[in-house]
Automatic annotation (TrEMBL), chain A:
Keywords: Oxidoreductase. PANTHER family: COB--COM HETERODISULFIDE REDUCTASE SUBUNIT B 1. It holds the Pfam family CCG. GO terms for molecular function: oxidoreductase activity. It comes from Candidatus Infernicultor aquiphilus. Residues 3-83, 147-235 form the Cysteine-rich domain. The keyword Oxidoreductase applies. This is Cysteine-rich domain-containing protein. It comes from the Bacteria.
From TrEMBL, chain B:
The lineage of its organism: Bacteria, Pseudomonadati, Atribacterota, Candidatus Phoenicimicrobiia, Candidatus Pheonicimicrobiales. The keyword DNA repair does not apply. It comes from Candidatus Infernicultor aquiphilus. PANTHER family: IRON-SULFUR-BINDING OXIDOREDUCTASE FADF-RELATED (PTHR43255:SF1), IRON-SULFUR-BINDING OXIDOREDUCTASE FADF-RELATED-RELATED (PTHR43255). This is Heterodisulfide reductase. The keyword Oxidoreductase applies.
Length: 289, 176
């Protein structure tokens, strides 16, 4: 298993614990991640401004992985979705591919539509598989319960993701949590959005959307939220203090990335998994280990 | 405009071709399929906390030809692109893509939201939304993570292809 690792904009600056833990987990499970220095923004923010320019940016990134003969794996759900969408369209519509390649030639690049794009979580579920994960478990996490947050772009729009998981009744992240022995809790509005998409447009609205979910998760007594997207973390971890202040509530709810949870179960130390970088300290939780 | 006046739809000011303009763009094709059931609005996480945003209303306004009111509004920028509506729409209107079509047209008509100007400027300068400077790379090295080089030149060149660079210039001049 060898993939080009697409970090995107947010992970390498604001979610180093996610990157660290994903790399450690990948290494442990025999996934080789190849860094490509020329990757730039996936194109997601540009889609609202100009569709062709978003396709160009996505195509450039896809062409870099294609050149190395590698499928692309991403830690960010928005990057995954936008690159998967562009990839599908560029693969299926020859005239669009020609048009975009024509413009992409200013970089001396060309995308032929030969690679696949996957979310890191999907690689764990589909390519590594629950069975292999189970064989590698070292630490039993059955004392813990986590609230899975799927976010939006890991599975949506469903039309671009073949038949991977069920948008209205998703299970892959729950199963990945439960394979570690931990419990994945049920909670209200589990599938709903973090609000991150409009943080820069209308902060109060975005915070209210995030608050709804924090309220619902807090009532479950889960040890932490389990995330698979760095932007969701900006809402639930980065903005948690602000939400507490604004709405006079208290959560103190740790926010973990799935590879941090899996990493613990694989016997990797919290230190190596970047737990020190978590802003809401999961001290009580780690004390139970 | 008083609140009452704002609610009056002036037929002579409508642009009935607006829906065809939307239909001509990838993602906007199915707008005329909408039968206004409201499934989009009922499941919308933004609508739940902010009345200003109402996808059914935006589609209705677009179908009626209220082009100027839609394009110049703040509410078209409130879609969080969560795709909940698009997944549930019984008429496959592909509302999230439709919202992007409307935003793309708004941008071309000079109504880009300031938040997107800031994001496009960051991309134009760094090739990424967040700058990666020496400080960040030092931090990465300490953690055993590989350094990252910015590659802004590529993005600059791609922005020129469809005139996103000019758009930014216009937006800047507008501010001055």
């Amino acid at each position: 298993m060898r993939y080009a690792l697409f970090l995107g904009c947010t992970v390498p600056v604001r979610a180093l614990n996610y990157e660290l833990s994903a790399r450690k987990v990948a290494h442990k499970l025999g996934i080789e991640l190849v860094d490509i220095n020329d990757f730039s923004c996936c194109g997601f923010p540009v889609k609202s401004v100009d569709r062709d320019t978003f396709l160009l940016m996505a195509a450039k990134n896809l062409s870099l992985a294609e050149e190395k003969d590698l499928d692309l794996v991403s830690l960010c759900s928005a990057c995954t979705s936008i690159l998967t969408e562009a990839n599908k369209e560029l693969k299926e519509e020859e005239s669009l591919r020609k048009k975009i390649n024509n413009k992409l030639s200013v970089l001396g690049r060309k995308y032929e539509g030969k690679i696949k794009v996957k979310h890191f979580t999907r690689v764990l579920y589909e390519d590594v598989g629950l069975e292999k994960i189970r064989e590698n478990l070292k630490v039993d996490l059955s004392k813990f319960s986590f609230a899975a947050h799927y976010g939006c772009h890991y599975l949506k729009p469903s039309g671009i993701y073949e038949d991977f998981d069920d948008v209205e009744n998703p299970k892959t992240l729950d199963e990945l949590i439960e394979v570690t022995g931990a419990k994945s809790v049920l909670y209200e509005d589990k599938k709903s959005c973090c609000g991150g998409g409009i943080l820069g447009i209308n902060e109060m609205t975005a915070l209210k959307v995030a608050k709804n979910k924090l309220d619902h998760i807090k009532s479950t007594k889960a040890d932490a939220i389990c995330l698979i997207c760095p932007f969701c973390s900006i809402m639930y971890e980065g903005s948690q203090k602000k939400i507490e202040k604004q709405f006079e509530v208290e959560y103190n709810l740790p926010v973990l990335y799935y590879p941090q949870i899996l990493g613990l179960a694989l016997g990797i130390s919290p230190e190596e998994l970047g737990f020190k970088l978590n802003r809401i300290k999961p001290r009580e939780m780690l004390a139970k280990l | 405009m008083s609140e009452n006046e704002e609610k009056i739809i002036k037929v002579n000011e409508l642009e009935p071709n607006f829906k065809y303009e939307i239909q001509a763009e990838p993602g906007g094709e199915n707008i005329t399929r909408c039968f206004a059931c409201g499934t989009c609005t009922a499941g919308c996480p933004i609508r739940e906390v902010n009345d200003q945003f109402n996808p059914r209303k935006i589609i209705r306004m677009a179908l009626l030809g209220m082009k100027e009111r839609v394009l110049s509004s703040d509410f078209i920028w409130l879609c969080s692109s969560c795709y909940t509506c698009a997944e549930r729409c019984p008429q496959e209107v592909k509302i999230t893509d439709l919202m992007n079509v409307i935003k793309n047209i708004a941008v071309r008509e000079g109504y880009i939201h300031p938040s997107f100007v800031a994001q496009m400027e960051a991309l134009n300068s760094h090739g990424r939304l967040y700058e990666i400077g020496e400080f960040d790379n030092e931090k990465r090295t300490k953690l055993g993570l590989p350094q990252i080089e910015e590659n802004a030149e590529d993005t600059k060149k791609l922005f020129k292809q469809k005139g996103v660079d000019k758009l930014l210039q216009v937006a800047k001049e507008g501010e001055e």
